[in-house]
Amino acid sequence: VDSMIVKDDYDGMRLGETMTQEFIDDMTERFKTGKKIHLKYVYQIVIAVTKLVHDEPTMKEVAVPDDTTLTVCGDTHGQYFDLMELFRLNGAPSEKHWYLFNGDFVDRGSWSTEIALLLYANKWLRPEAFFLNRGNHETDDMNRAYGFEGECKAKYNDRVFRLFSESFSALPLATLIGDKFLVLHGGLFSDDNVTLDDIRKLDRHKQRQPGQSGLMMEMLWTDPQTEPGRGPSKRGVGMQFGPDVTARFCEKNGLEAIIRSHEVRMDGYEEEHNGKCITVFSAPKYCDMTENRGAYINIGSDYKLKFNQFDAVPHPNIRPMAYANNSMMSSLV
Ligand SMILES: O=C(O)c1nn[nH]c1-c1ccccc1
Ligand SMILES: [Mn+2]
Ligand SMILES: [Mn+2]
Ligand SMILES: [Mn+2]
């Protein structure tokens, strides 16, 4: 990558050995106008973030300082212009405004490379003020069927997808906020005895893809249900967990609640299981079809949850899944 030359006629800001806010601001505007960034910079960003997140613990632990706000966002699914709206309403990532994106950054929406590169550039610039959890769409099977692989190849090349795929395998699986809130993309487990230590000890690097069973798969795939106990997944992968499962997990691990994403909610968020299971979803008007709002959660040093909602904004006339490899749809779960 180092030997790649960025020709003089490249009209974007240059990137040196480290990320800058100016580069992020320039890239953000380029993406809004349908431009790309130089291939060399895509490689640099994804390789740098892969190294960074690889060395993070499987469960990242974050305390919110007095003068800081941490915003938890759910699925964005390639809806770049709606993410711009979220940053417009709530403030862009900065030293004092931390963000946690809780998986499913890509697929479905047709600006997945733009979202992935913007989140990664922010992670590279402020690795201790910007956090990423893996979702079930940060996996090869889903990216093949739901558009991200095709989008990488269409806008950049196959190596870019392979580099992103390796970075997804390196992402943490959960983030613990103030010892009170466990944030993970899917949800809880088929085993009542799972503790935070089991998640801390999970070696996520041994298994690049979540597979059909185990803690990693369940953290990325499971869903809450209203009935007590556990039930079958509607997705064909994972399972569903009831309010008693959530209560026992929170009690056992000293948590106030779990915060998860993974499912659309008409209001953008929903407090379930007597407030111990919170779903937050940040892709309004999901796939240009569902009439749902988006939401995000602001958390200060008092660890009070402030729910905020937002609406979809107009975007260029490119349909969802514009780059999807339709032939794979049938083979998916
Ligand atoms: O694409 C989605 O809506 C989604 N978000 N999380 N999981 C899925 C999903 C899972 C299985 C099949 C289709 C979509
Ligand atoms: Mn490794
Ligand atoms: Mn999703
Ligand atoms: Mn999901």
Describe what this molecule looks like in 3D.
This protein is of the alpha/beta class and 333 residues long. The protein is built from ten helices and 14 strands. It has helices at residues 21-32, 39-54, 80-90, 112-125, 140-146, 148-155, 158-170, 196-201, 215-221, 243-253; strands spanning 59-62, 69-73, 97-102, 130-133, 174-177, 181-183, 223-224, 230-232, 239-241, 257-260, 269-272, 277-280, 294-299, 305-310. The strands form three sheets. It has a six-stranded mixed sheet. The chain has a five-stranded mixed sheet with strand order 4-3-2-13-14, with helices on one face. Helix 2 packs across helix 4 (112-125) and helix 6 packs across helix 7. It is globular and about 60 Å long. Residues 104, 135-137, 185, 262 line the site of one manganese (II) ion (MN).
